[in-house]
Amino acid sequence: MTPSLSMAGKVAIVTGAGGGIGRDIAIQLAQAGARVVVNDIGVSLSGEGSDTGPAAAVVAEIRANGGDASANTDSISSRDGARRLVEQAVDTFGRVDCVVNNAGILRDRFFHKMSDEEWDAVLKVHLYGSFYTSSAAAPFFKEQGSGAYVHMTSTSGLVGNRAQANYAAAKMGIVGLSRTIAIDMQRAGVRSNCIAPFAWGRMVASIPVTTEAQKVAAERKQKLMTPGKVAPLAVYLGSDLAGDINGQVFAVRGNEIMLMSQPRPVKSVHQAEGWTPESIGEIAMPAMRGALTPLEETADVFNWPPI
């Protein structure tokens, strides 16, 4: 395939780009011609510590391959950190055209055992971070009459996973955030879309493997669901190639790209005299029962091997 220069002349910000999906997105954005601000504070999977090395290493890799990049270690979980990140892009490269909200941490625990800190920490990075960074870039996007947001959601929110109430709530919140940004900013020529990535990284690797079948499945996922498979869609959505794509939710699973549904009415019942709790149980629920959503988890819905 001929390399694309779809991001030539553009400036992109990628949060959480020191490793995993964010690293591959940053590298492929640079390969497509973008100048990239690589944001990563170098924390552990659960959000502890800090290390300037990961962001600097990705910048060095981009530069070694002829690209242009700048490292940033601000925390996007605060409004000031997100503002400094966007200002660095503008100060360094003169503009900003694309924001990829990728940074994330995990604090898995059954919801009734989850502490305030475990809840707050995950929402701060994923949901607040996406809001703060998007908000900081918005004035620049509006002034130039163009811009693209690419947000990372998850099937943990779209479908469901156990012991991830904080993560799932944040990721579903990001879908609502993206959709509203798309509506609010469309007149300014700004787009906002989501990707639910399936990729082997620190988050997926942290899920316990207890059976031989799970081990075999994990090995297949590690081989086929690489972060590099997600990056092309992020580059596409950030570029002018996706000029008419706005407010959508996609998923990437190996070599598959899926357009995900968004909540819309699936069945309606009406009764002229209104409803009582009893008539709802007698009439409405039986009429709608066949359309109820099964209580499934991500693995139940995406039950075929990655390809």
From TrEMBL:
Domain Ketoreductase: 10-203
Organism: Achromobacter aloeverae
The name this protein goes by in its record: 3-hydroxyacyl-CoA dehydrogenase
InterPro entries in UniProt: KR_dom, NAD(P)-bd_dom_sf, Peroxisomal_Beta-Oxidation, Sc_DH/Rdtase_CS, SDR_fam
PANTHER family from the UniProt entry: BLL2957 PROTEIN, DEHYDROGENASES, SHORT CHAIN
Gene3D superfamilies assigned: NAD(P)-binding Rossmann-like Domain (3.40.50.720)
Top-rank taxon: Bacteria
Transmembrane region(s): none
Pfam families linked to this entry: adh_short (PF00106)
